[in-house]
Every structure is written in structure tokens, then in C-alpha cells.
Amino acid sequence: INEVISARNKSDAVAEDVGLLIASMPTLVAEGKIPAQSTTNIIAFLQTMHEAIGECKTPTRFILLSDGLEDSEYARLRLASSQLPPIVIKPPQDKRYKCDELQILGLGQGLNKYEDIDRLRETWKTWAVGRERPFKSFVGLNDW
């Protein structure tokens, strides 16, 4: 499910659509309308989207509905010893431009300990935000 947002969309309508999508995600998966993935490749998705968008010269926020548990050739974040690899997204050439925010909603769903969720949140923040990173901020929320 994708939501295309443009200047022609009314912001209230977009906010309502996104809120409805987020709120209905667990039900859509439980009903089989959206298949649950057996693996999660967040890094490749972010790299592809960042290349498609380019240099975030306008306000840009990436919002992922995910447990944030990268499970790919890059990392297996369910394991406490696993780390994300060096960033594969190049920051813009013009240092004035960075994507505003990376949000992961549902971060750590399925993990049993808050310490694991805190570790996951810090891992993604360190990966996404900083001097040579593509995002200005990171938000990782555990619930929908």
C-alpha cells in the first residue's frame, strides 16, 4: 500500500489516510489482506527510496511500519550482538539538504524486553542520524 503525496493533496486528507493505514495494519495482516514478511530488508528499501527521491531539498519524512528488525544479508537485528553495517546511503552533495526524519512505527514488536527495544532504537538512530548520515532525526515508536 502506497500513499502518493503531492501539493495537490489536502494535508488533512493525507493525515487521515496515513492514520487509517497505520491503525489498520495489524488487522490487515491478521486477515491476510497484507502478507506478513518472513524477512525484513529495511536498509535496501531506504537506499532505493533515497535514490528515487534524490537530495531531499523539500521536507521529506520516511515513515516505515515495521518491527525494525533488519533480517537480511546486512544484519540480523533480533540478535543482541548484531549491528547494522556502515551506511550505504550517501548524504547529499549539498550539505544544507538532509531528509528530515526517519520514523519506524512498530519498532521492536515481538521483542520481550524493553532493553531490546531500547537497543534497537539506539542502533537505528546511530545508523541514520549524524554528521555523515542522511537524516536529521529518528523516531522509533514501539506501538502502532
Mean pLDDT: 83
End-to-end Cα distance, whole Å, is 16 Å
Q: Give the % helix.
A: 25-40%
Q: What's the story with the biggest beta sheet? A: 3 strands, parallel
Oligomer: single chain
User: What is the 3D shape?
Assistant: globular
Strand order of the largest sheet: 1-2-3
Task: Provide the β-strand percentage band.
Answer: 5-15%
Tell me the series of helices and strands, N- to C-terminal. Answer: HHEEHE
Going by helix content, strand content and strand pairing, the class is alpha/beta
Number of helices: 3
Radius of gyration equals: 16 Å
Instruction: State the low-pLDDT regions, or none.
Output: none
Total strands: 3
Structure overview:
The protein is 33% helix and 13% strand. It is of the alpha/beta class and 144 residues long. A 3-stranded parallel β-sheet has the order 1-2-3, with helices on one face. The two termini are 16 Å apart. The model has no long low-confidence stretch (mean pLDDT 83).
